Amino acid sequence: MKDTYLSRGKFVPVPKFAVLGGKGIYMTTILKVENLTKVYGQGEASVTALKQVNVAFESNKITVIVGTSGSGKSTLLNLIGGLDKNATGSILLGENNLLKLGDSELARIRTRKIGFVFQFFKLIPELTAKENIILPAMIDKRKLDDTSLSELTDKLKISDRLSHYPSQLSGGQQQRVAIARAIINEPDILLCDEPTGNLDVASGKEVMELLIDSCRQMGKTVIIVTHDANIAKKADRIIRIEDGSIISDTVNE
Predict the structure, then answer these.
(1) Judging by DSSP bridges, how do beta strands 88-93 and 96-97 pair with one another?
(2) Which class for 118: exposed (0-12), middle (13-18), buried (19 or more C-beta within 10 A)?
């Protein structure tokens, strides 16, 4: 897939070095969405959640998607992550159009290429924190490097909680375990759906600082759906969606 950028609603090739927001940066498109439309229901009861959305995401950048409830931002995230493929258009990750893949191939890409962080953690209560973290690697039959696991849990400040079960952890600790689980397979892209929505202000701030700092150090592409204006301030880019369409796309200085 050629490196591109969105200009007047169309993707056009760009040089490896370009000026964005007044700054010279290297631009590499890792994910590209073209003419994406999602409709729920049929006939008069149908609701169009996304309308001909075109957007590209650069590697190693943190993008925040904001919008009111029902604007389509979580629908976009679910489609990008391969959790839903009942839509028209294309979602290109490398040479793969996620909307055209079979279930087994899509599951493989979700396991290896995309990490997920959800608002309600989605930890398995019968597993310890460590077991929750390493579960994606076990599913992928991948041998984990103990040093890498230790470095990751140290970075997220949960090394002393690995033998605890989710019910024994605070909300902030559970979300940090969920972040470690999302990163453990070294995905190219990390998708976060309201990652602080179930946390108090102090815990949410700490979790987001750890998430953003860790992902910047590891060179991850991060896409975050949120209502939190403070999270948006820390991003490289802010996309606003309303009524299923992108109405603004700005770069943070």
Answers:
(1) antiparallel
(2) middle
What's at 8, amino acid-wise? R
Structural contact between residues 130 and 163, judged by C-beta atoms closer than 8 angstroms: yes
SS3 label, residue 107: helix
Q: pLDDT tens-digit profile of 109-155? A: 998 899 999 888 899 999 999 999 999 999 888 888 888 899 889 98
**Which amino acid belongs to residue 128?**
T
Q: How is 136-186 classified by DSSP, letter by letter?
A: HHHHTT-PPPHHHHHHHHHHTT-GGGTTS-GGGS-HHHHHHHHHHHHHTT-
- Closest of 170, 152, 56, 74 to residue 116, by C-alpha: 74
Q: The tokens of 204 are what?
A: 């949410």
- Assign domain 4-251 to its CATH architecture: 3-Layer(aba) Sandwich (3.40)
- Predicted TM-score (pTM) of this structure: 0.83
Q: What are the domain boundaries of the chain?
A: 4-251
